[in-house]
Specification:
Strand content: under 5%
CATH class: Mainly Alpha
Helix content: over 70%
CATH topology: Proton glutamate symport protein
Structural class: mainly alpha
Largest sheet: none
Radius of gyration: 21 Å
Number of strands: 0
Number of domains: 1
Shape: globular
Distance between the termini: 48 Å
Number of helices: 22
Length: 406
């Protein structure tokens, strides 16, 4: 049985147990639902255990592998600009769309989680927040779980490593790659426990909230799907039309095969061969452009994931009763923007890598497990959106860099 099916079954089982306990009021079922809650807590702790080293290692590899950014030229500049701009738009659009869909969710679900969640920490003001981005001691920041300052330190360290002579840079990247692979393997092992962990988390919450939890999760899924649809229609297609000189309908028809493969596999990496074929045979782009943009996009192009994470921040903040202060929103946008470029190529990577953004707004990391059980449908949609964005980037860059395209 595939992992996502097992996780979905675990979620359904937990929801059913909790719902029956809530409807019948059975003391035995309520005791069972609440008695298994420590198992869910242990699963969340396992996720927390790996988050800090995984995020640091992946960001170091992603930034350090770019080398000296000055050498990328116009081709690299346009590609990175497209990915950065659309990722930033995705985060903000996801937050806005989720805010519009929150009235469809049930307050009872939020009340049930707020009653048992730890209180949110006080967030700093804007000036204090900016100062806090510079860690006085990176090791202390790691011990305290302060992910955003660690990310800033890691980016600066990785950028300096990328500017070293090739032999020294490659040594550091080889070590970081090995650490990353080991951590990804560890995450795979942890995620095999996800069906049990999600079951143990969903049952007590649903027992306390009843139908409200199902209603709230449905509102989240609808918001993500609506946001991704709007993203493609109002960002990618106009970009292709006005910056790339290609009609939106024509673009979608020529990209249909890789988009469908992306949705069915939920893997951008697995879709790379289909993207290369579509760029060459269907879109008729120049080889120097697509041979650069598509592989780079497979590693960096997570614009649909950025939208999903923006929606996830707003949803989980509401669910846990955490107010989104201006400084917190700024930190969440910055964290999501950075991490969306380096999402691990693992199942539910878009969920696990939400941790820095949640920490920035003071949402408990227990919220990650809430999203794991319903991640399959959003994962399919956001992967298809990622692939659409990578191919849109190739079309735009091909038009904007004619010298490199020859």
């Amino acid at each position: 049985m595939k992992l996502y099916i097992a996780v979905a079954l675990g979620l359904i089982g937990g929801l059913l147990l909790g719902l029956i306990a809530a409807v019948t009021g059975s003391p035995v079922l309520m005791a069972i639902a609440e008695g298994i809650e420590p198992i869910g807590t242990a699963f969340v702790d396992l996720l927390k255990m790996v988050v800090i080293p995984l995020v640091i290692a992946i960001i170091f590899v992603g930034v350090g592998a770019l080398g000296d950014l000055r050498r990328l030229g116009r081709l690299g500049a346009w590609t990175l600009l497209f990915f950065a701009a659309t990722s930033a738009i995705g985060v903000l659009l996801g937050m806005g769309i989720m805010q519009l869909f929150l009235p469809l969710a049930s307050e009872a679900a939020a009340d049930a989680l707020t009653a048992v969640a730890p209180p949110a920490p006080a967030l700093p003001g804007p000036i204090e927040f900016l100062i806090s981005l510079i860690p006085r001691n990176p090791f202390q920041a790691a011990a305290e779980g302060a992910l955003l300052p660690l990310i800033v330190f890691t980016i600066l360290f990785a950028a300096s490593a990328g500017a070293l002579p090739a032999a020294q840079r490659d040594t550091l990247l080889l070590l970081a790659n090995a650490v990353t692979e080991a951590l990804i393997k560890l995450v795979h092992w942890i995620l095999w426990l996800a069906p049990i962990g999600v079951f143990a988390l969903a049952a007590p919450v649903t027992a306390r909230a009843g139908w409200a939890m199902l209603q709230s999760l449905g509102a989240f899924i609808l918001a993500v799907l609506a946001g991704l649809t709007v993203f493609v229609a109002l960002v990618y297609l106009p970009a292709v039309r006005f910056l790339g000189g290609m009609g939106g309908t024509t673009f979608l028809k020529r990209c249909l095969n890789p988009i469908l493969i992306a949705a069915s596999t939920s893997s951008t990496a697995a879709t790379v061969p289909a993207m290369l074929e579509a760029a060459d045979e269907e879109l008729k782009l120049s080889r120097p452009v697509w041979s650069f943009v598509i592989p780079l996009g497979a590693g960096l192009g997570r614009m649909g994931t950025a939208l999903f994470q923006g929606a996830g921040i707003v949803f989980l903040a509401w669910l846990f009763g955490v107010p989104l202060a201006a400084s917190g929103i700024g930190g969440a946008v910055l964290a999501t923007f950075i991490v969306s470029f380096t999402v691990a190529g693992i199942p539910a990577g878009g969920v696990v890598s939400l941790a820095p953004a949640l920490g920035a707004v003071g949402v408990p990391l227990d919220g990650l497990a809430v999203l794991l059980g319903v991640d399959r449908i959003p994962d399919m949609a956001r992967t298809a959106t990622n692939v659409t964005g990578i191919l849109a980037a190739a079309v735009v860059v091909d038009r904007k860099t004619p010298a490199e395209s020859d």
